[in-house]
Amino acid sequence: MTKSEPPDYLERRLTVEVHAARISDEISDLLPEGMGFTLLLTETGEGKTHFGVQSTLQRESTIRMMKILLEKWGANQ
Questions:
Q1: Which domain holds residue 49?
Q2: What contacts 24, CB < 8 A, 6 or more positions away?
Q3: Residues near 39 by Cβ (< 8 Å), separated by ≥ 6?
Q4: Can you give the pLDDT at residue 70?
Q5: Chain-wide mean pLDDT for the chain?
Q6: What is the total count of domains within the chain?
Q7: Stretch 44-63: mean pLDDT
Q8: Among residues of the chain, what percentage have pLDDT more than 90?
Q9: Is 2 inside any structural domain?
């Protein structure tokens, strides 16, 4: 924690990570074999930086998937 982070920084970050892990477990149980996912969970609002990431995919697969998604959303414009 740095001086610029609010006093509840670690608690809020842990909360987001715990929820991401719980949701990830539920999703994994529902998916057919051979199907993977990447879950991004974040707080909303100005200046919020707490996020959790859970994935059953290899990092390279997630990066490739995210690049395709960003291109579809027009993020490169």
A1: 9-73
A2: 37, 39, 54, 55, 56
A3: 20, 23, 24, 27, 52, 53, 54, 55
A4: 92
A5: 85
A6: 1
A7: 84
A8: 45
A9: no
Tokens of 48: 């919020």
In a domain, 55, yes or no: yes
Q: pLDDT tens for residues 2-34?
A: 566 777 888 888 888 888 899 999 999 999 999
- Residue 49 falls inside a structural domain: yes
The token pair at 17 is 């990570």
For tokens 């529902």, the residue is 30
Please answer whether residues 65 and 38 qualify as being in contact, where contact means their C-beta atoms are separated by less than 8 angstroms: yes
Identify whether 3 is part of a domain.
no
Question: What is the C-alpha to C-alpha distance for residues 23 and 25, in angstroms, rounded to an integer?
Answer: 5
